[in-house]
Amino acid sequence: MQMPTYMSKFTSILAFVAILSACGSPAEQTVDPSRANASSSAEPNKEISAAPSNANAVTPSSNAARSNDPVRDGAPTSTKETITLQPEVPEGTKQTTLQYTMNAAYRFEPIAGSEAAKKAVLLTFDDGPKDETTLKAMLDTLDKHHTKAIFFVNGYRVKAKPELLKLIASRGQTIGNHSWDHVDLKKEDEKTVRKQIGDVQQIVKKTTGLTPRFFRPPFGSGGDLVKKIAAESELLFMTWSNGSLDWDASTKDKPEKVIANVMEQLHPGANILMHELPWTKDALDNLLTQLKNKGYAFIDPATIDTTPTTKPAK
Ligand SMILES: [Zn+2]
Q: Ligand 1 centre from 6 Cα, in Å?
């Protein structure tokens, strides 16, 4: 009588697996964004504790794969048992699904067929890495909000503080190329532009093992030549669509002004320009909370399609 009992148990497990696989994405179904927003608007300065912050995340599939994902951790024991019946996907073969594309105005739109949120923003921080205290606090705030950003770095700063670049990389943030010397590339000849861009690609690769995929010219100043060289270097060229003016004297030591500037220009797909600065660091937690309260998600740079949509200028 042993065989039939064993077989019936095995059959019921198979049936359970079938039911589970028909259920779709658990992360999608268990998160209630309206509740997350309601709880955070009641206490804007406190961390959202009850509702998972990834209610606003735009990459549910990649979040589900992370070991610290609250939905997966909270899954019933029986689910874990069924998972062991299936072969684990090796870490190296996990692929990030592309969700967003950038338009000619440097704004982001969900890729056709993607379930990514239209109301989403990209966070970017230029001109680092500079200061360990400022940078660490910004990274902590991004972590608190389960958010990724692009740090557009200058080569001469990386050379001075390679450990800070490693820190950015180790926290899973994205590194972008912002030229070596922060010069106005529009005024430079081809050889100089190539060196200004190429040397940053090299030092980032040497320091972190990562190759930047994004490029932003200093001062947003880049003509056809700079665009062509960026494209040849397999870099997505962008300026921004929402300037926080955090670099300007009018916002110095005024985090509330940084927030007000961003919120005034807010639009779906916004490409938000900020810098590694103390008052931006002080603004960040409140800013991210306000963006969430407005129903905005944060675009993970890893989900942006960097394939050029048009041929670079000849
Ligand atoms: Zn800059």
A: 66
Total Cβ atoms within 10 A of residue 268: 16
Give, as residue ranges, everything with CB less than 5 Å from ion ligand 1: 126-127, 218
Number of domains in the chain: 2
pLDDT band at 95 (very low <50, low <70, confident <90, very high): low
Answer yes or no: 126 catalytic. Answer: yes
Cα angle, residue 39 at apex, residues 36 and 40 outer, rounded to 5°? 85
Structure tokens, 247: 């670099």
The mean per-residue pLDDT over the stretch 54-65 comes to 34
Catalytic choice (126, 199, 246, 285) = 126
Please give the distance, rounded to the nearest whole angstrom, from the Cα atom of residue 237 to the centre of ligand 1: 14
Q: What is the pLDDT of residues 180-209, one digit of tens each?
A: 999 999 999 999 999 999 999 999 999 999
Whole domain around residue 189: which residue ranges? 100-303
Rg from Cα positions in the chain:
22
Task: Locate all alpha helices (DSSP H) within 178-268, ordered by sequence.
Answer: 190-208, 224-232, 255-264
* Candidate list 69, 246, 275, 300, residue with the active-site label: 275
Of 71, 93, 115, which one is at a domain's C-terminal end? 93
Query: Which residues 6+ apart lie within 8 Å of 285 measured at CB?
Result: 45, 141, 144, 145
